[in-house]
Model the fold of this input.
Amino acid sequence: MFPIMAVFNPQQLKQLQRQAKHTRGYFSKEQLSDLQQQLDCDMDALLKALLPVAATFSVAPISHFNVGAVAYDKISGNAYLGANLEFSHQALCLVVHAEQSAINNAWLNGAKEVSAMAITDAPCGHCRQFMNELSTAKQLKIMLPSLNTHLHELLPSAFGPQELGNSARLLDSSALAITDLSSEISEQLKSHLQRAYAPYSKNLSAVEICTASHGNFYGRYAENAAYNPSLSPMQSALSQLALAGLTVEQAGICEVTLVQSDGLENQTAVAEAVLASYNADIKPNYITAKLN
Done:
C-alpha cells in the first residue's frame, strides 16, 4: 500500500535541485521510477513530492510568492518542472506563471502530451485558460497539495480553440516548412520556429539566447484562444534560463535572436519590454521568415 504523502528529505531535495538545474527541469521515466522506489509511492504522490524542487526555481521579485508546477507526460513517462518568473519594473501581464513554465518546458523538450499537472497552489484563471489550449484539456488531471481534480471541473463552460474554429492544439500541431529567411539562423532556431503555435495571429515566432558558457536557450510563441494568456517566445526562452538556475546577469548572454513571420510581426515590443527589466544592454537580432 502506498503512503498518502511522499516527502523528500532536505538532502534529497538539494540533490534533486542540482540535478534539475543540469537538465533544465527535466526528469526522465527512468529517473522517476528510481525516485518512486526511494519513496515507495505512486506517480501522483511523486509529482507532488517534486513540487518543492520546482518552486526553488521561482523568480518572484514583485509578489514574493513562489509557485512550482510539474507537468507529466504519461505517454513518454517523463516529467517537466516549471516555476513562476516575474520581471521587475514591467507590467504584471508579462509574468510567466508556473503552469505555463512547466507546459512550455514539456513542449520544448518534445513531450507527446501533458497528462497531469501538479501545482503548489490552486491555478489562477489565467492558467486554467492557458491549460485549456492543450490537446488533453478535457482529461487533464490537476493535483494540488490537498486535492486531486480535473481541469474541466475548475473551468466549466470553458471558452477554447473550438470557439474560434481552431482544430489545432498546443503540443499537437504540425511543423511548417520554412520557405525564406531574411538572414541565416541556426538549425535549432529553425526547428523551434517551425513548431511554434500561432493559430490566431499566424505569427510563428521563436527566440534563441546564446550564452558564453552555459549553452543556448530557446523559446517558442504559444498562443491562446483567449489571447491574453498567450506566452511570448522571449518569455518562453527566459523561463528556460531560469530553470537552469541562471539569471540574465549570470548567464553571460552574447547574442539574442528573435525570428517572426514576415508581415505578421507582433513580438518585438514584448521582447524589448521583457529584456528591459534586466540591467543589461541586450539588443536582439530581428529576423523575418516565410513559412507554409
Summary: The first strand starts at residue 26 and ends at 27. The mean pLDDT is 96. The radius of gyration is 18 Å. The CA atoms of residues 58 and 64 lie 9 Å apart.
